[in-house]
């Protein structure tokens, strides 16, 4: 593996094996285990089984304990999955110092080593996304739309009106990376290929290196972690592009204060509005931009890829959505406000997210209080353990959705019409099943305190992209009626990485 030598891997493997057996022998719990409950060796083989069959195991636990809690073995620990809306609500409402989102992320990605301890300690970049970035979406929409048009033209490179077989995810990833970075760092950097590839690869690097470091016992992490991580080289690489821009911004702020003429309205400025002390350094700001790209690019690309697989597998959705886009754009043009009137598009994307959520578990939190976390029914999860809510099983439960297993792209727009009757084209009133609305039965963006702060941007970008595809391109499945099956990696589930669809420019 690139940059990790064989001795390091063997050493990690040996250390991991010793600590697995040691840690396993110490963990006892009265909470039922779905697999691997008969001792350290059984739980170890259970952990391997879980890695390969996470979706089935969590689904099994969900059916066996519909209103209870169960645990599943991972290589080092038991992790806990809590069922039922009341428990999901309690996880969503728990304060950070009791059920910690940050420590959960830090454990999963080993952020101290892979990204830097400053990321573990402080997520202020999330505030920039939740605040200024979201508030500026309407104002910045023309640039985002301009980038979408440019990116589709450039990346798809469809010269003639002939059908082309498109490898979906890598192309969509390029388009999403460009479009997102138009808002994050602006032109011309958002079109610089090396910068885009760096941001796309960063996520995979952090996940893979984080998993390897996670296999080490605590005492070895500070020793081997820095050799396994590419933390310094990734930031150095990003500095090549972001360094001069951020240095210039910092100098301008020193000279003119916060409100200098022509100050760009982008993520760099929004971060600078919040950054204090050591956060106002070029490397720290660079790291924040990498972190936001990491949160934004893969999640959004996977959603659009899944939506395209659904569109081509269930083509009956094509014409009604296309008509909706044409009608709304003819009446109102392209704006964030006009996207809000594309109810079928919103519904189609929400339904895609409902059935294509990327993991059987969601909302991972680490128990941060020494006495453990006790739910209102008295169930206690021990200190230091990871707690999750069921993701796929919640979304596929017939108690939550009629014919829950079936893809029904207009499920939510129909519900909207039923709720609002003849006012369905008017203001939303009490309708609360928009793409961005989280709930106890819809956890794709999480729910509660840490619900994804970027979901308003993600929804704007995804709706604008899907609408753009619908009125500019014809699409069809590579093989009629066949949806490329999802790929699975441990608890991650993704739209098929190698999947293709046919695409051509629409005749005008
Ligand atoms: C379809 C696209 C997206 C999906 C499915 C998604 C999903 C999520 C989820 C599940 C979480 C954790 C919530 C929890 O555990 O309660 C999260 C957190 C986060 N997301 Fe997103 N996300 C998406 C797009 C974005 C975008 C475009 C941005 C940035 C512009 C973004 C920025 C963030 C940040 C900064 C956090 C961490 C929040 C914190 O520190 O409290 N996400 N996202």
Mean pLDDT over the residues = 92
Secondary-structure arrangement, i.e. CATH architecture of the largest domain: Orthogonal Bundle
Bound small molecules, by name, code or SMILES, are:
protoporphyrin IX containing FE
Question: Strand portion, in percent?
Answer: 5-15%
Distance between the termini: 49 Å
Helices and strands: which structural class?
alpha+beta
What kind of sheet is the major sheet? 5 strands, mixed
In the sheet with the most strands, the strands line up as 1-2-8-5-3
Describe this entry's structure for a reader.
The chain has about 500 residues and is α+β, with helices and mostly antiparallel strands. The protein folds into 2 domains: about 80 residues, no CATH class; about 400 residues, Cytochrome p450. About 55% of the residues lie in helices and about 10% in strands. The chain contains 20 helices and 12 strands. The strands form 4 sheets. It has a 5-stranded mixed sheet with strand order 1-2-8-5-3. Strands 4-12-9 form a 3-stranded antiparallel sheet. The longest helix has about 30 residues. It is globular and about 65 Å long. The chain starts with 5 loop residues before the first helix and ends with a strand. The model has no long low-confidence stretch (mean pLDDT about 90).
Descriptors:
single chain; 508 residues; alpha+beta; Cytochrome p450; 2 domains; 5-stranded mixed beta sheet; 3-stranded antiparallel beta sheet; 20 helices; 10% strand; binds protoporphyrin IX containing FE
